[in-house]
Design brief:
This protein is mostly beta strands. It has one helix and 32 strands.
Length: 428
């Protein structure tokens, strides 16, 4: 939903500064305290509801208008009850989400006020219908400042009008009023009246860091602390302009910003990068889904600006993802070797030592002749005192292992090792 203000993106981009919005003054119309509404609680939640008109007309005690309420479905319990709507914000009646309310507006009851409490930020939707003419629906924030104001008119053919606005809001308390179309009141006295039904729903923004009423991270001083390599979800609401985040780069690093907007307005959002002193270093539209920065160690800030639009977004500040390749220097009989992890970016990772073969032992060096082939097994110990796996060397023996004589055992190293060594044993 586009905010009721004009925002110059060119100036904001050049100066890296947002344009503050102006608040609209509240306009309240009150009525007698004895106005009443009906409430029907439904077991299921719907995004949009449709009311069927009761063909049996019923005249209210305080208004010369036809009242209607949604019909009860087969097998559904009639949970209608009477509830008194407030005549102004101070006396507003608290209502529940996903519950249908009905009431009437007339000469004797010019406005009904309801209080809505949102436990989380999200998209507030109001699904309403009227029977009559010219009813105004107005949403206020907790300070009584008007957020939206729209009229609903009953078509001539059916006499039924509908109203289905939605608006992204922060967590907090809000007020909804149903009133006469006040701009017609003087010249069309008695014409702006009718009965109404409505239901309020909320689709949560699932913010990673929940904000309070009106936004709680709207300035650089109130920035939320975030971490690198973690995805964050947020929302630009109708009653806030900016979200600020603070992150720390522990060492000189390349940081990639990966953005995703979750609705059609997201391409209009702008995100900014600031240094620790609040100086703008870079900016981009969220439609530019990735941006890479080479940053020195230190603190930085991210600002998300809706550019006059509202909706959900998510982002990740990702450090460079190293693709390691092992650079091997083989161990010899006299020197240790190394395995060094290296990335194409030039970064060096873990370094592992390959300890040289220090000791080569035969299980036996002297055998007594018995007419059968006899040969010893081999064990290699590295310079770290640990056994080197036989998979890293090949053992070959001299021929004629059945006769008396001196024989050679050759150990040839492979893989992470190079070189060869000879050992001897005898059959006597």
């Amino acid at each position: 939903m586009k905010k009721q203000k004009v925002l110059s993106l060119i100036l904001a981009a050049a100066l890296c500064v947002s344009t503050p919005g102006s608040a609209m003054a509240a306009d309240f119309t009150s009525g007698p305290e004895d106005s009443a509404v009906q409430v029907t609680t439904e077991a299921t939640t719907e995004d949009v509801f449709t009311d069927s008109v009761d063909t049996t007309e019923k005249i209210t005690e305080n208004a010369e208008v036809t009242e209607f309420a949604p019909e009860v479905e087969d097998g559904e319990e009639d949970a209608t009850r009477n509830a008194e709507a407030g005549s102004d914000i101070e006396s507003a009646t608290e209502i529940s989400l996903n519950t249908r309310y009905t009431g009437a507006i007339s000469d004797n009851n010019v406005a009904d006020f309801y209080e809505i409490k949102l436990n989380s930020a999200g998209l507030l939707s109001v699904s309403g219908t009227i029977k009559g003419t010219s009813i105004v629906w107005t949403l206020y924030d907790d300070m009584g400042v008007e957020i939206i104001n729209e009229g609903t008119y009953g078509p001539d053919t059916t006499g039924i009008g509908s109203f289905a606005p939605d608006v992204n809001l922060t967590k907090g308390t809000y007020y909804l009023s149903v009133s006469r179309y006040r701009y017609w009141q003087s010249s069309y006295e008695g014409k702006s009246s009718g009965t109404y039904a409505f239901k309020v729903g909320l689709k949560s923004a699932n913010e990673t860091i929940p904000e309070e009423q009106g936004g709680s991270n709207d300035t650089i001083d109130d920035a939320d602390d975030i971490s690198l390599n973690k995805t964050y979800k947020g929302q630009i609401a109708y009653n806030e302009d900016n979200d600020y985040y603070k992150f720390t780069v522990p060492k000189d690093e390349k940081v990639k910003a990966i953005w995703k907007g979750n609705d059609h307005n997201a391409d209009r959002y702008v995100y900014y990068l600031y240094d620790s002193l609040g100086n703008c270093m870079d900016w981009a539209y969220m439609s530019n889904t990735t941006r890479e920065w080479t940053l020195e160690a230190g603190d930085y800030y991210i600002r998300v600006n809706g550019s006059g639009y509202t909706g959900n977004y998510q982002f990740t500040l990702q450090t460079h993802s190293h693709k390691w390749k092992n650079e091997i220097t083989k161990a010899t009989l006299t020197q240790n070797g190394t395995i060094i992890q290296k990335c194409a970016c030039g970064e060096t990772g873990r370094i592992t030592t390959i300890y040289r073969p220090k000791t080569v032992r035969l299980s036996k060096t002297r055998y007594k002749y018995n007419g059968y082939a006899q040969k010893p097994t081999v064990k290699v110990i590295g310079s770290d005192g640990k056994v080197i796996s036989p998979s890293y060397y090949k053992v070959t023996y001299s021929r004629g292992l059945t006769a008396k004589g001196k024989y050679t055992v050759k150990i040839t190293f492979k893989g992470r090792y190079s070189g060869s060594v000879k050992k001897y044993f005898k059959i006597v």
